[in-house]
Every structure is written in structure tokens, then in C-alpha cells.
Amino acid sequence: MLEIPEAAVLAEQMNELLIGKVIQKVITNQSPHKFAWFAGDPEEYDALLKGKEINKAVNHGGLIEVYLDDVRMVLGDGVALRLFSDKSKLPKKHQLCIQFTDGSFLVASVQMYGGMWCFKKGQFDNQYYFIAKEKPSPLSDQFNEKYFKKITSEESVQKKSVKALLATEQRIPGLGNGVLQDILYNAGIHPKKKVNNLSEKEKERIFQSIKDTLFEMTIQGGRDTEKDLFGCFGGYKTKLSKRTVNQPCEICGGQIIKKAYMGGSIYYCEKCQEE
User: Fold this and answer.
1) Based on C-alpha coordinates, what's the Rg of the chain?
2) Cβ(106)–Cβ(17) under 8 Å?
3) Are residues 169 and 261 in the same domain?
4) What is the pTM of this model?
5) Same-domain pairing of 46 and 93
6) Cβ pair 86, 55 in contact under 8 A
């Protein structure tokens, strides 16, 4: 799933490789998916996008916004993006396929769920999009200790777990359950720990870990559980993920545990992150 590091990496790749490309043809819903979301009628995407030139790509949290003259395309966190130069290599199943005049293709496929919203500038009413654009990214200077302290001091979060604080309700757009695991591991905090039980030093550790961990993930090309435009896994080796469960902790040698929690999974070291 696209989260802050992967969205930043994909946006950078798109700026390097797609700027100036002109759209020749668009195919939508070749493989219908119940949880593939579009803005308006996807059958109109071809007419809307044909002849448009890619100007730039910007990531907002886990979303990628592509500027195409007077049109915008927003790609959500459950969308896998691939760039192809050979038509014979195109996947058989996809929900959005954009052919450029130079013969290359940008293909979007939905995994569990995902949005591929194309619309005229200013004609998209989606609260997640607006919130993601409005709030500062942890990769920016605007996301500082003062800003984080404001988030953690809100009365509504005091009885919530640290996972709920960081990865739900768009408090930090693009920080999801995936990157959360290493953030809390590096901070030495159990994901179930309640916010009102955190000391000031623990809050400081979490803040610094958010900044440092997401930066490291981004500069290394994303996590090793996620892929870029060419289908290559990121260079950041996840410490807590499906790849490391039941393995020994690199710090203390304790076991990496996986448990179901809040509709998803959490990973933690049984010794370094006591509940």
C-alpha cells in the first residue's frame, strides 16, 4: 500500500520520466474491481485526458496528484503503478491504462481498494484529498515538535492507543499501518500503549522516530515490501513486517511478534516494546 515514502518516490519518478508526455488513449475498468473508485464516469476518462500533457506530480501523504494542463489525476494508496515501454509486457488485468503518444504506458491496478480520480481542476470534492493537501508532511519542516505536541495533547486521543493516534483518522495523512511498525520499533514503544500513559520523553522519541524513519525509508526508495514504477522493491529493509515476523530482534534477540489489532496486524519485539 502506498504510504508517505512510496508516494514520494513514485512522484519523483513520475517527474523524472513522465513530464512532457502527451496522452493518446485511456482505457478504464478493463478488469472491473468492486473497490476501484473513480471520479464521475470512468468511461469519460478517455475524452477527458486525451491530448493532455503531464506537467508534474506531487505527493500529499499517501496520495499522488498528477497535473495535466487543466485536469488533475489523483491516485490513492491502494493503487499499484507501473510504467511500460513495450505493449507486449502490459498486464492482462488493470483498472486504468494510459497510453502516451511515444508508445509508453502508465498502468494502474487496484489491490484491495484504491482511487483513480480524474477531474477538471477544482471539481473534486473529497475530504481525504483536501486533508492530505492541507496538513504538513512529516518529511517537511512544518511538521515539527510543536505541531506533533498539538496532535498528542488533544483530549480526544488520550485514551486511544499509539497506533490509533498515528495511523487513523487522517491525523498524519500517509502514515499508515505499514510504516507505523518501524516507527514505533525505533522509538521502543508498543503499538497498544495508550497516549495518556506516554511520558514526555516517549513522545519525543516517537516524534523523532517519525521524522528519521520516514526520511530513511524515502531516501532508500521506499520499503522492501512495496514496488516502484518499474516493479522493483524499495531499498529500505523493514525491521518489522511480514518479512521479519518470528525472527529475532536485531537489537535484543527477542522474537518479533505478529498479532491482530484494530482490524489489521501489528508487529513488535516482545522485549524492546513492552506493552
Assistant:
1) 20
2) no
3) yes
4) 0.94
5) yes
6) no
111: containing domain: 4-134
Residues 79 and 180 in one domain: no
Cell of 165: 493516534
3-state secondary structure the chain: CCCHHHHHHHHHHHHHHCCCCEEEEEEECCCCCCCEECCCCHHHHHHHHCCCECCEEEEECCEEEEEECCEEEEECCCEEEEEECCHHHCCCCCCEEEEECCCCEEEEEECCCEEEEEEECCCCCCHHHHHHHHCCCCCCCCCCHHHHHHHHHCHHHCCCEHHHHHHCCCCCCCCCHHHHHHHHHHHCCCCCCEHHHCCHHHHHHHHHHHHHHHHHHHHCCCECCCECCCCCECCECCCCCCCCCCCECCCCCCEEEEEEECCEEEEEECCCCCC
- Specify the pLDDT at position 275: 80
* Position 1 pLDDT exceeds 90: no
Are residues 27 and 104 part of one domain?
yes
Closest CA to 50 of 66, 26, 70, 72: 26
